[in-house]
Structures are given as C-alpha cells and as structure tokens.
Specification:
By secondary structure, the protein is α/β, with parallel strands linked by helices. The protein has one domain: Rossmann fold (3-Layer(aba) Sandwich). It is built from six helices and five strands. Strands 3-2-1-4-5 form a five-stranded parallel sheet, with helices on both faces. It is globular, with a radius of gyration of 14 Å.
Length: 125
C-alpha cells in the first residue's frame, strides 16, 4: 500500500501516536507499506513553527525520515491538479495534498473532514 500522511498525522506520529486511530497507526508502521511525507507538509509545519503556532522538536524532519517516511516533492503536475480541484476547501496545503494523492495514486491518511469532500481515497487518522 502507498500512503501520504497529512501534516497533522506527521505531528501526531512524533508527538503522540496514540492520537492516531489504531488502523492508521498500524498501517503507517507496517514496513510493507510505503508512506510519504509531502514537502508541502514540511513547509506548512515550519511556517506554523516560525509563527509560534506549533511547537515540535527541531529535528522532526530527520526523525520522520528515520522512521521510514519517504519524501514526496511538489511537482508541476501536483500544482496543476490542485488548481483543477473544485473550491471546496480553501487551505492551499490541504488542496496540494489532495492533488498529490490523486496524481500519485496514494491513500491520504487524514482526519480532516473537509478533505472528505473530494473524491480522494482516505484512511481515517
């Protein structure tokens, strides 16, 4: 299985994995699955940290990579697909994650109910 973790899923994975629903937690931890973190999520999280809206350890990116999360860069195809999405959700980072999931054929792990408005496969976090 190929998955993309939403930004809040990354924070919960590091800070309090028990916040994640059990099926999501075990699926993310399964070494047979490929789990990605988006460059968009890292950008979002570091912006929130810089504004003082989020506190997570400085080495969080390395910790996620060491835990087996793979990097997913933002491509022109992702941005183009994001622009084609209906205006159901105004958060540009979430729209980009939806687009990345659709373009790359990934299951999006999220608890964001607004994302459920899109025709994107999700695994409840």
């Amino acid at each position: 299985m190929r998955l993309l973790a939403d930004s809040h899923v990354l924070v919960w994975w590091l800070d309090d994995p028990l916040r994640l629903a059990e099926p999501a937690r075990t699926t993310l931890a399964d070494p047979d699955n490929v789990v990605f973190l988006s460059a968009a999520s890292i950008w979002e999280l570091t912006l929130k940290m810089a504004k003082g809206k989020l506190r997570i350890p400085e080495g969080f990116i390395d910790a996620l990579l060491e835990d087996g999360f793979g990097e997913l860069a933002v491509s022109v195809a992702h941005v183009r697909r994001s622009a084609e999405l209906p205006p159901l959700h105004q958060d540009p980072f979430d729209r980009l994650l939806v687009a990345q999931s659709l373009v790359e054929g990934l299951l999006l792990v999220t608890r964001d109910e607004a994302i459920a408005q899109y025709a994107v496969p999700t695994l409840p976090a």
